[in-house]
Amino acid sequence: MHILLINSNRYRFPPVIPLGLEYLAGALEHSDHDCTVLDLCFAADPQKEIHAAIMKVRPDVAGISIRQIDTVLYRNNEFFLDQIKEYVGCCRRHKLKVVLGGSGFSIMPEAVLHYTGADWGVAGPGEQTLPRLLDALKQGRPIERLWDGFDIPTGFSFPRKKSVDYTPYLEKEGVVGFRTQLGCTENCFFCVEGGKKLIFHPPAAVGKELAELKAVGFTDFHLCDSEFNQKLEHCIAVCKAIIRQARGINWSLYMKPEPFSAKLFSLLKESGAESLTLSLDTLSMRAAQHKKRKQAARFFDLAAREDIKVAVDLSVGAPGEDASEVKAAIDFLDEQPVTTVGVNSYYRVYPGTALFDTVRRNHAYKKRLINFTSDNEFVHPVFFNLIPEQKLAEIIDRRSKFRIEGLEMATNYQRVKKHTTPEQDSFQY
Ligand code: B12
Ligand code: SF4
Fold first, then answer.
1. What predicted TM-score, i.e. pTM, was given to this entire model?
2. pLDDT digits 0-9 by tens, 113-140
3. Which ligand places an atom closest to the C-alpha of 311?
């Protein structure tokens, strides 16, 4: 079977290379099927390009990658599913069946299938499952509507197949992504990425992938794991593989508050890690305030010793919290060697999270929901907010390290590189 794989992500702040499709293209090369990748990121007329690609390639089926449902920002939120529904319609007009996948799709697969009217979906990684779905299609077997992609063993790895032109991405401050593992074993109360089993790529395969990209001139990378420090042994083995096989690259990564060690930070530095984003929320910092803060301070200290820049994504205003706790967390971070802190007080509410259950159980919290209607399936973003933006601005009190998320279109790796202060930016609190 020949599948037309479509990158539907046209959000460009900054543009993101469709890494998932490159891994899928790599996996399909090792199957009885093949693919053509159509990148709509910079397309002037996406529907015209879909039409042209179908006419040229004559695929048996179309696959659309949905990287995100929306931007998760309360301010200036962009919702992507209407656009994607049109792409599904475009394929349909050519009598093509459509399979969906991607990180955004996997958050609410049933609801997204329903919303877009596509035929089938793969929730989670598609490397093993998409070829199986295509096998079934080829053999004319009945096909389930929703497939579970997580049914893959640790250690699986297919070499990625470079399938799109990186040049326009890099020109607009995009960076090349890479993955070392899937899943996250934490269960943060608001997050859709938690509670998923860990599936590790072999560190040597990660090193090889980066070495090959380095050999053709790519030197700046961003990690595409949920958080890097899931298991110290894996992190250390990956850093060593990068040092051995791809020394000289620069990379940025996401980390969670634990586990970490002095050795990890030293190896991160040696492997070229320039900056990291630490995800923090005031609720989990409260759990054992003194211990958690001491631990976070040690984390910041070790990163500073290695001259790895730290950005913090700080989520504040969990159910039950008050403004004094937010102020305490911000005052604490103000004293730490942290380059920039993005503060977010609007939680996107997703079914299946603890936040969703808490809000549903408690009438007082329902009043704190924004954009909620009784028939809303949470596909259109609903936000939970306890701390009004004005209050947050008062707490921040123009301290230049802090930014209110959503007022500026930039990611942490861009912020850390430029290291701008709010006064230098065009926006004002
Ligand atoms: C790394 C990352 C970033 C990095 C990307 C760096 C880079 N150069 O690649 C940066 C920091 C730039 C970033 C930015 C943003 N991100 Co981001 N990001 C992630 C993260 C952690 C990993 C995404 C990734 O690349 N994974 C690795 C690849 C290999 O996996 P994949 O794309 O999922 O593909 C696999 C499967 O999904 C499947 N698959 C994919 N496509 C298809 C298609 C078919 C047909 C099939 C069958 C299967 C399939 O198979 C693939 C191979 O295994 C995810 C969370 C997560 N754990 O997924 C959030 C996530 C996708 N990001 C998110 C958001 C909101 C954003 C921003 C909008 C934030 C903002 N407001 O600015 C921007 C958008 C930027 C843009 N232009 O699109 C949200 C989306 C939430 C939502 N409601 O949809 C997520 C889910 C995080 C979260 N929990 O909120 N992000
Ligand atoms: S916020 Fe980070 S650590 Fe927490 S569940 Fe999500 S990905 Fe895991």
1. 0.96
2. 999 999 999 999 999 999 999 999 999 9
3. 1
